[in-house]
Amino acid sequence: MAIETLSIIVLFVSFIGLLAYGVPVAYSIGISTTLTLVLNMAFMPATTTVMQRMTTGIDNFALLAIPFFILAGEIMNRGGIATRLINFAKSLIGSLPGGLAFVNIIAAMLFGAISGSAIAAASAIGSSLTDKMEKEGYPREFSAAVNISSSTTGLLIPPSNVLIIFALASGGTASVAALFIAGYIPGILVGLALMVMVYFYAKRKGLPKADRVSLKQLFRDFRKAVLSLTLLVIVVGGIVAGIFTATEAAAIAVIYAIVLGFMNRQLKFSDFRSILLSSAKTTAVVMFLIATSMAMSWLFSFEGIPQLLTDSLLDSVSNPIMIFLLINIILLIVGTFMDMTPAVLIFTPIFLPVAMALGMHPVQFGMIIVLNLCIGVCTPPVGTLLFVGSGVAQVPVTKVIKPLLPLLGAMTLILLMITYFPELSLWLPRLFGLID
Any idea which of 125-139, 249-263, 269-283 has the lowest mean pLDDT? Predict the structure, then answer.
């Protein structure tokens, strides 16, 4: 038992120490895992075991969906889809107080859902709207805050790479189809909560609203956006109906995005070199994170950490409400310094057994962990989305924090609702017969 305790201490101390020193997350995970295994075996067997676990960890057909969705997102970003979604959203709700901020949220929800990438949504929507919002009196830091927070909705609304990763980390207890269909209500609730905050901000600041558009113009903008929106029906509908797998759906999304990009006359053959290069770089980073995280997840099982934590939590805290609150607090803290992919792969095996022991469905827990980490990517010190959104708006991060806090508060309120009201996550999957 002493060697097990020492292993756990070495694992967490080395991992946190490497992160604090500025070592990239993937390397921190790999090095701390190897150091911990050295305590139990010689150096060569330890390194061999880590390499084997990294290799077998990504030897999974379902993971092939990730590079395809990344590629589809890059193509959509270049194919003029963002502009069409922005115009449709502006015709739909631009006449409300703070209309352009509403447009930002709706467009980010739609584009993020179509591309499956919060970074792509923040880049595409932010670069298209920030200057327009400034001309109409919106502070740039407020525009950046709205763009950053709303871009996270694409991680909940399918198709979403992080939900595929959670399905892998859950060991098959939650299917991709069930997670995809479950993400709609939480994702829409987050968007609505952000819109409520924007509405009160706009009323207080007297922000302008656009003129109401005619039904003819609304129909025209919808017609231009409908082919982009159809991708959601094809991808998610095909998976839920069992017509094709998530990986096949991702490949179809790539083909559809290419066709749509050429139809929009925004995509050229000369663009593909940079698109493929950017997609390959992103895929390499994600896959390396997955590989090292899978090695650490295996080490957790090897050391019995999930069972130890489950027993400790259940013995020390008898109230499920308090346990779920504690898990949320831990995940919120984790999200501030760790990227979503390794966080899902590392902490799902730790906390999912606890949640299931208390009667929580794995699909509901998937929504909880993803929304926690959505908040995390908007906060320093790591906050990938925070830095991307600030960079797109050309505003210092320090100025974005103040207008961002109320929006993160609204997201946290939705997180608590999803935690304590299971049907918000489970009603749709049950309706479609994806879970019991």
Answer: 125-139
